[in-house]
Every structure is written in structure tokens, then in C-alpha cells.
Amino acid sequence: MTATTQTPGLHFTGIDMPSRADLLNCIHCGFCLPACPTYIATGQELESPRGRLHLISAVLDGRISATERVLGHLDLCLQCRACETACPSSVPYGRIMEDARAAILANPPAIQPRAWRGRALLLREVLARPRRLRAALALGRLYTRSGLQAFVRGPLGATLRHVLPPTLLRLESSAPVLDRAPFRATGLLSRPGLGSPTTRVALLLGCVQGEIYPQVHEATVRVLEHVGCAVVAPEGQGCCGALLTHAGDSETARALARRNIAAFERAGVEAVIVNAAGCGAAMKEYGRLLHHDRHWAERAERFSAGVRDVLEFVAARDFAGGLGRVERTVTLQDACHLAHAQGIREAPRTILEAIPGLRLVEMRTPDRCCGSGGLYSFVQPGMSAQILDAKMADIASTGAGVICTSNPGCAMQVEAGVRRGGLDAEVRHVIEILDEAVRAGR
Ligand code: SF4
Ligand code: SF4
Questions:
Q1: Are 290 and 300 in contact (CB under 8 A)?
Q2: Ligand 2 near 223 CB (within 6 A)
Q3: Which ligand 2 atom lies nearest to the CA of residue 33?
Q4: What are 423-441's pLDDT values in tens digits?
Q5: CATH 1.10.1060.10 location in the chain
Q6: How many angstroms does the Cα of residue 33 sit away from the middle of ligand 1?
Q7: Which one of the ligands is nearest to 39 CA?
Q8: Which atom number of ligand 2 is nearest to the Cα of residue 29?
């Protein structure tokens, strides 16, 4: 690492420093600006990818310290990586931002920014701990099933909504409807008929997908069976660590990655299937996350090479035979971590367009972020709402009755937008619609 003179105050430190070589790839052309949701919303250079890269370079070179103002500009970034898609110089903005955040949180706890420390703590102590997460979601399930959620959201709850503190009201309005039993099955999940050719694959259960959208796992298993797979959910797997990496807690993310690699290796499968775009993107980058670790670097690279998003996996197989009709008008919201981080745009379209009776109506900017960004909607509620409003207007203009996406965070955010705007539409994972067609064809 090159020695630099740091100005006093918070600076970058630790093993996850942003790479100078990556930063030097930026030729300052500005092609990324019109793709960036926060630049579109503010028109400010410092809320653009180019501006943020400039700040990160200045902190790295010790020309400025990471003041509250500088961190504010980094914090307003959604980490949607639309700038990577737009960049002609292949600047790996996502990893530069992840490293910048990790290099801030590598400072001693006493000087870490409080909000950043608190966010990492929440993710580490709740999201990464299945028992605590399930206990928290059990309360949410009680809230839905008791009828209180419907009451608060209905016309009779208007007075209550008026007196709720803004933070609580925000939390309430974005809370999912938890009216289904969670999906927590492990072991062998599907058994294709005797004599049928099978590929053995493993499913990532993840931290929230099976708890909030269990029907997505159920549909995934049925569709994988349809394309000739035996599906297992290995014991010992857990949260993929994506949100911790985004928040800068790379140590916890590395611990979660090691646990998942070991669990999936034991399963001896041909592919690891992921139906949450954010998790898939993170798991495909375990090799990079663990590249400092000589015991795990090679294993992590090998593991990452076997990770597939479920849509990418299914679209590459013979999935279209025997599909029944699904008479729906559908629009597709590209999950940022599918389109921009994994470069997968065609697979969801190939699948939807193959379904008889289905009409796909594209919105104007399907690959623009919905404003979800993991915890972003709670941390930056104003910007998140502004971005969501633009997204909902785009969705409404398609007249679609189904909004398809491929990530639980996006689903929750768009569902909140549907409720807020009173839109007559439902939000579904692409795999659920394909599953509907598979079942209709039986
Ligand atoms: S990741 Fe998204 S919000 Fe952040 S700079 Fe890039 S385009 Fe803008
Ligand atoms: S498009 Fe790429 S090279 Fe151009 S300013 Fe943005 S990050 Fe830099």
C-alpha cells in the first residue's frame, strides 16, 4: 500500500482500501451522470458517480479528510451500479464504494460515524442472526394476522396515521404483508420422477426471501424441477452478507461468506441457485471479498463460479415446453443487482416472452433503481421516496396489472409504492409467473 500523508480526522484505513488503479480508470467523461438516480434528482456533481469518485480519490490521497459532508455524499449513493453499466471505461464503481465504506468503518469505533456504526450493528446483530431476525418478523406476522395492519392502512386508521411519529409511519408504510408461513425447509426439496435426467442444484434460502416471500422459494423449486433438477437446501447456510458489504462491515460479510461456502461445498452440487438478485451479486463476488485470505481465496473463487441467478439458469435450459397460458399484462422492473451488477437483462425477458398469453409492456426506464437499496429507504427516506415516485409514474404509464422483479428489497419497495399510489397492480417475482405457466400447462 502506498504511504500517504493524511489530514487529521477520519480517513481510509484497513485492508479494504479503494484501489488507486480502479480510480485512475475514470476519464471524467461524465457518461455515468444521466444514469445516476441521485444526480438526476439533484443535478449536483457531488451527488454523481464522477463526483463521488473524485471525493474518494481525494480522501485516499490525504488531500481531504472524510468529513461529515464528504460522508454525506457517499451515503446518498444507492449502490445501484447503474453508473457501471453506463461507463465506457469499465470503472468498477460498486467495489470502489464498498471498499470506501469498509475503509471508513476500519477506523477505531470511537471515531466512526455514529450512523454508519449503528447501521452495521443492526445488520450484524439482527439480519445476520436468523433467530433474532425470525423473532422480529414473527412480530410483523402477528401485526398482519391480527388485522391491525389492515386497520392502520384502511380508512379507519387515518386518524392514527396522522398522530404516528414520521419514522414509525415510514416504517409502517413500507412493512410487508406477512400473511404466509415462512419457507425454512432444508435437505432434499424436490424429487424429479424416476428415470428423468437430473442436475443436482442447491438453493440459497437467504435471510429474508423465505421469511417474507416464501412463495418465491416454492415457485423456484417447482420450476427447477420442471427443468430437470433435483433441488437441495443445504443445512448450515445463512445470510449472504450483501447488505453488510454495502454498509462497510466487510469482516462480518467475510465470516458469512466462509460459512456459506463450506455449507454449499458439502452439498456437492452443480450450481448454487439464488432467487434474490442482491444475494446472487454478492455471492458471485465472494472471490473478491476473500482475496486477502490465503486459506479461502481459491475456494471462494471456485464457489463464486458456480453461483447462478435462477432466471439466468432457467433461461439457459429447455424451460418453454408444456407451458400453459397466463393472460396477464406484465411490466418488468430490472433489479439493479441483476441488470447492473450481474449483467443479466435478457433472461427475465426471454422467460416472460415465452409464456403463452402474457403481454410484456416495457416501461421507459426499467433498469433505473426503485429507491430500495437495502436499508436506503430507511436511511435516506426523502431521496428514496423521490426515486420511487418517478419509478411508480413509469410503471403506471404501462397499464400493467403485474409488476415483475427479482429481488425482495425491490418487491417491498414497489409494493409500498403501489399502496401509496393506490395502483391496481400486484408485485411478483418473474419465477412466480413462470411457475404459474408451468402449473397451467399440466
Ligand atoms: S451506484 Fe447508483 S446512485 Fe451510486 S453513483 Fe452509481 S448510479 Fe449513482
Ligand atoms: S462514465 Fe466512467 S469514466 Fe466517465 S466519469 Fe463516469 S465513472 Fe468516470
A1: yes
A2: no
A3: 6
A4: 999 999 999 999 999 999 9
A5: 20-112
A6: 9
A7: 1
A8: 4
Q: What is the pLDDT of residues 53-69, one digit of tens each?
A: 999 999 999 999 999 99
Ligand 2 centroid from CA 51, angstroms: 10
Cell 437499496 found at: 373
Q: State if residue 162 touches ligand 2 by the CB under 6 angstroms criterion.
A: no
Torsion angle in degrees (nearest 10) through CA of 295, 300, 301, 305: 150
DSSP 341: S
CA dist., res. 154 & res. 156, Å (int):
6
Ligand 2 mean position, distance from CA 44 (Å)? 15
CATH architecture observed for domain 187-315:
3-Layer(aba) Sandwich (3.40)
Residue 1, C-beta contacts closer than 8 angstroms, at least 6 positions apart: 17
Whether the predicted model's global pTM rises above the 0.85 cut: yes
Distances in whole angstroms, Cα of residue 321 to Cα of each of 198, 318, 333, 381: 17, 7, 25, 44
- pLDDT averaged over the chain? 95
Please name the fold of domain 329-440: Rossmann fold (3.40.50)
Q: Calculate how far, in angstroms, residue 134's C-alpha sits from the geometric centre of ligand 2.
A: 42
Q: What's domain 20-112's architecture?
A: Orthogonal Bundle (1.10)
- Single-letter code of the amino acid located at 55: L
Nearest to 182 by CA among 166, 156, 206, 155: 206
| Structure-block grid coordinates of residue 330 | 406484465
pLDDT in tens, 278-318: 999 999 999 999 999 999 999 999 999 999 999 999 999 99
For cell 413500507, the residue is 174
Q: Return residue ranges of the chain for CATH 3.40.50.
A: 187-315, 329-440
Q: Which residues line ligand 1 (CB under 6 A)?
A: 35-38, 49, 52, 77-83, 93
Pocket test for ligand 1, best of 93, 95, 98, 99 (most atoms within 8 A of CB): 93
For residue 254, count other CB atoms closer than 10 A to its CB: 21
Nearest bound ligand to the CA of residue 89? 2
